[in-house]
From TrEMBL:
Position of the signal peptide: none
InterPro entries: Arc_rbn_hlx_hlx, CopG
Tree of life domain: Archaea
Protein name: Ribbon-helix-helix domain-containing protein
Protein's organism: Halapricum hydrolyticum
Region listing for Disordered, in residue ranges: 48-68
Domain Ribbon-helix-helix protein CopG positions: 13-44
Biological process per Gene Ontology, one example term: regulation of DNA-templated transcription
Matches recorded under Pfam families: RHH_1
């Protein structure tokens, strides 16, 4: 047994269920279509279920005045890691593909507006690499 001290708030609990094979196959296809995995999709559905009637699957209500920003926000939430962080190079590649714009345009057209509106916070590491944290993300 490990002698490491663990922060109890960071512990995760495993949940097991038995489901018909056909439903699992359909759900896996649904996950593939959204470029996510089964575990993250289940976590997102659990968050939505306990959010008190929240009608969106993201930490905050997506922008409702700009379809491009709403789509980008949904996609960033779908690909963020378990801490709600996504590297800038990953974000620009994915957003360029999803939105049909160049990687160079993703920063001024999408990432900066989402940052200014409070959906993302920008962070850098000691090597100078930039990543974004989705505001309001809870593990």
């Amino acid at each position: 047994m490990s002698k490491q001290i663990h922060d109890e708030s960071q512990r995760k609990k495993q949940v097991k269920v038995r489901v018909d094979a056909d439903l699992v196959d359909e759900f896996d296809q649904w996950c593939d279509d959204r470029d996510t995995n089964r575990s993250e999709a289940i976590r997102q559905h659990m968050r939505a279920a306990v959010s008190g009637g929240q009608e969106y699957e993201t930490p905050r209500q997506p922008p409702n005045d700009d379809d491009r920003l709403a789509t980008a926000y949904h996609r960033l939430c779908a690909v963020a890691n378990q801490d709600g962080v996504i590297r800038e190079d990953t974000a620009t590649s994915i957003l360029a593909t999803v939105l049909g714009i160049s990687k160079k345009e993703t920063r001024p057209m999408v990432l900066r507006p989402l940052h200014k509106r409070g959906y993302l916070t920008r962070q850098s590491n000691v090597f100078g690499a930039t990543s974004y944290h989705i505001a309001g993300w809870k593990n």
